[in-house]
Amino acid sequence: MNIGSKNKKRVVLPSRPNPPTVDQILEDISRAAPSDPVFSILEQTGQRSSQPSDSDVDLRFQQCRRYLELSERLQEARDQLLRQREELRVAGEQLDRDVAEVKGQPL
Question: Which ranges form a coiled coil (predicted)?
Fold first, then answer.
């Protein structure tokens, strides 16, 4: 048991400032010099500060389309499997009735 921790006073921190608005951020970026350390860090880490190229956008668009197509095909396959499962359940019940009927008949 640490008795000394009960005697510590809580430090009241000042409230956080409001986050900058989009306009303030854009203004800050536009005023920054190309030699600003933030831009050099982005280059060193392989991140680009410019907009993605058209080929990147096209690639992402094609990936999204393919994902949606596959998702739709999976949904259709799921629905088909549910129908087939129900058909098998009904066929199994009919088979059970037929087997019970045959067992009741003399050979």
Answer: 64-98
For residue 74 the two structure tokens come to 């999976």
How far apart CA 24 and CA 47 sit, in angstroms, is: 23
Domain ranges of the chain: 19-50, 53-107
Nearest in space to 29 (alpha carbons), one of 19, 39, 44 = 39
Q: What is the DSSP string of 26-71?
A: HHHHHHS-TT-HHHHHHHHTT--SSPPPHHHHHHHHHHHHHHHHHH
Using CA of residue 88, residue 93, residue 96, residue 97, what is the dihedral sign? negative
Beta carbons within 8 Å of 48's beta carbon, 6+ residues apart: 42
**Average of per-residue pLDDT across 43-72:** 80
Q: In 3-state terms, what secondary structure has residue 19?
A: coil
